[in-house]
Design brief:
Length: 224
């Protein structure tokens, strides 16, 4: 590999083996501030190795890769921006506990709504300002159960509780379009279609959950 002693940004696309990524990080990792890796076929990458090789890493973008070592100690104190797209891991990722994260963007496929807590920061994120979550679980809202709506409300309240500085929230479930709606417009839509949802057996009480309403109004930029 050529020498780039001051390299700060590295992007790798369609990498055949994780060992190639590891080799690049050993070569350039000490100066990297941003890393983007898309499409590693085998084996899994390792969060531990990434941050051990890249102590200055502030931005991490991973897409269509597998990741291990979620239970291993990781030094990710410099990390500010995390973007994970179709990243598979054995369980809740410890990387969501990185203490200085300002932006988290997650695009997850096949996640059971009962396991929604797997993509929730498990402890206080005092610096987190933006949270984007896209779940590809269904194509239309009528396929989401009443219990799922309750889980979503609980998720949003917990997210707000652990992220006191959150000012932007983008929560999207099973939508193939890029038309996002603010929280008030979602409420208006459901009110307009109240009979339809009632016939489907949905409990819409979560929409008038006063705690949830206050939280989403305080965030200001809450989109669905």
């Amino acid at each position: 590999m050529p020498d780039f002693p001051k390299l700060t940004d590295l992007a790798m696309y369609g990498v055949e083996f994780a060992e190639i990524v590891d080799c690049a990080l050993q070569k350039y990792g000490k100066t990297l501030q941003s890393l983007r890796v898309i499409g590693v076929k085998m084996p899994n990458l390792s969060f531990q190795r990434i941050f051990k090789s890249c102590p200055k890493l502030e931005g991490l973008y991973l897409e269509k890769v597998g990741v291990t070592d979620n239970s291993e100690p990781i030094n990710f104190n410099k990390l500010r921006v995390l973007n994970l797209v179709k990243v598979s891991s054995p369980g809740p990722s410890k990387i969501l506990t990185a203490p200085n994260l300002k932006t988290i963007e997650l695009k997850v496929t096949g996640l059971d709504m009962r396991n929604l807590s797997q993509v929730l920061p498990p402890r206080n994120q005092n610096n987190l300002k933006s949270f984007y979550l896209t779940l590809r679980t269904s194509d239309i809202i009528s396929e989401i159960s009443e219990d799922d709506f309750i889980r979503i409300a609980s998720f949003l309240k917990h997210l707000a509780a652990v992220s006191p500085r959150l000012t932007f929230l983008n929560f999207n479930i099973g939508c193939t379009s890029h038309n996002y709606y603010t929280y008030p417009s979602v409420v208006q839509h459901v009110n307009e279609q109240y009979s339809f949802y009632k016939e489907k057996g949905f409990n819409l009480d979560w929409l008038i959950d006063l705690d949830l309403v206050r939280i989403l109004e305080a965030i200001g930029n809450a989109r669905f």
